[in-house]
Amino acid sequence: MLEYYRYSPEVSKAKQLQASLVALETTVLTHGLPYPQNLQLAQDMEAQVRAHGATPATIAVLDGIIQVGLSDEQLEFLVQAKNLRKVSRRDFAPAIAKKESGGTTVAGTLIAAHAAGIQVFATGGIGGVHRQPAYDVSADLLEISRTPVIVVCAGAKAILDLPATLEYLETLGVPVVGYQTDEFPAFYSRSSGLPVSVRADSPGEVAEIARAHWGLGLDSAILVAVPPPKESALPAGDAERAIEQALLEAEQENVRGQAVTPFLLARVSDLTGHSSLKANLALLLNNARVAAEVAVALSKSTHLAAV
Length: 307
Ligand code: PSU
Ligand code: MN
Known about the structure:
The chain is built from twelve helices and eleven strands. The protein is α/β, with parallel strands linked by helices. Strands 1, 2, 3, 4, 5, 6, 7, 8, 9, 10 and 11 form an eleven-stranded mixed sheet that branches.
């Protein structure tokens, strides 16, 4: 399997030294954000991870190779190239066989991170159960249910059906940890009115929950939901109005399949005068910081357990 993977020198070294690693996804760069904001974001997220004591591993598929950690040149290519694949579970083999390139989704990044031995992953918002049509369910949820990685996010993207997404996570047996909150955040906004299954107030508490879950032989992810930073979070009503309009347009324009999420996020950004974009960027950086802190706490608790 390793023939399909390549690690950057920085990631190889961190693995050798058993340093804390944080995986980062790239669909948000290739399908979520315009150039050059996507490049800036990728660099800023990596810097946040390093500033908090961990090593970033930005994951993508380049010319049919799964890259764990990207060079500056590789990142430059990824953020500017057109018609890249959105790589989820079903898309790895086609991309590899055809030597294509693409950004990995939450599901895709989880697969690669786990294969590379990385236990913590930062993203913006996970995919979930869509409001319409109700049978559109992101592959992110199934991957989260079967990959033992801590996923740090701002909840599920608010364009989704959040109550249904939480019910689905419950069915799949995934602990949903509210980070310094009792409520599941609504991605652009800090509250949804929906309860999480457990609250944790520090990185150490998150690490304890993960260790107990995996120690029991339960092999799902731990979903850590961090509210978006106060300064840039949107009032729930503002976000909801834009989302409803965007959903209407998606239906009128018959947007389907993998195109749905990028379409909705871009329309919500336009309709909110880009304040949703600002919130999205701020929460991604914040999640990178929390993920680094959790990765450091996890390696400390693992070392203690080994003593
Ligand atoms: N966050 C963004 N933009 C995105 C995504 C997240 O701000 O494009 C991506 C994530 O990679 C997530 C994917 O895994 O959207 C979900 O897509 P779908 O609903 O098609 O599974
Ligand atoms: Mn879908």
